[in-house]
Amino acid sequence: MIGITGATGGVGSGVIRHLLAAGREDLVALARRPEAVAPGITARRADYDDPESLNEALRGLDTLVMVSSDGTAETMTRHHRNVIAACPADVHIVYTSILDIAPDSRFYYSPGHQETEALLADRPHCLARTSVFADFFAATWLDDAARTGELALPLGDGAPGTSFCTRDDVARALAAAATARTEGVLDLTGPEALTGDQIARAATEALGRPMRYRAIDDADYRARLAADGEPAWLIEAYASMFRSVREARFAAAPGDIERLTGTPPTSLAAHLRR
Ligand SMILES: NC(=O)c1ccc[n+]([C@@H]2O[C@H](COP(=O)([O-])OP(=O)(O)OC[C@H]3O[C@@H](n4cnc5c(N)ncnc54)[C@H](OP(=O)(O)O)[C@@H]3O)[C@@H](O)[C@H]2O)c1
């Protein structure tokens, strides 16, 4: 039996969709709001902040697709500790970690993913390290840039770029890894690393609206987010992600998506066209 956390979210619901399409019926959707899980599949209440619910929900699984949690880094890491503590030791855990996992990373979420990976070390596990989600980048930055015509971000002046991957490709790869009980480390990336100019060009062509990239520096970006009233942790999360992009920590491509699933990863332009 395969359990999937974050079953109401973009990645978790995608994993369920791909497993169902592959003919798996022994699935358990794990969610803090089981009533929000799509019908046709067993759903159990699993609130990351309610260890008792996790103990109940994780019973009887062979495999757990553990989609990482969100919020502040402290919240995310606490949630992961709770899930792993509640999960029986023989369950194969496929965990969505992050591509920027190096110990010297200054990405806001990296220490939490490092700690979670360490907690999984003595269990059967697969670490699926994801690059930046194309969908997340589009919704958070490209939609506005398409309206104004300018993508002003601290992505740097050229290479190395970002190897965006789509949530759906990640979900497809996680479903394949869970089915095959893949062990070890996977890099889930897009087909290529795109610079700021290349992102703007891809968006211009895909969306049919002119967009130019303008490199801004870290301080200006942080000041803009602060002026928009964003909380300090989110400013750190976004600004440190872009610093990692400039440091080539999200540039690896292509990763393991095609090897795992038999289908090449979707490009940013193709994702935007859809
Ligand atoms: N690589 C990237 O670019 C990138 C970008 C953004 C996020 N991420 C990471 O990737 C993960 C998956 O992305 P996504 O797009 O699927 O996120 P999403 O759509 O926001 O889904 C997050 C899921 O986590 C669940 N959740 C939150 N708090 C919970 C709790 N206390 N107990 C149980 N479930 C809880 C949510 O449940 P509800 O529906 O009840 O809220 C939802 O199902 C994120 O959580 C984050 O760790 C990566």
UniProtKB/TrEMBL annotation:
Source organism, top-level taxon:
Bacteria
Where in this chain does the record put each NAD(P)-binding domain?
A: 6-179
Q: Which SUPFAM superfamilies match?
A: NAD(P)-binding Rossmann-fold domains (SSF51735)
Q: Which InterPro entries match?
A: NAD(P)-bd_dom (IPR016040), NAD(P)-bd_dom_sf (IPR036291), NmrA-type_oxidoreductase (IPR052718)
- Supply the name of the protein: NAD(P)H-binding protein
* Species annotation: Glycomyces luteolus
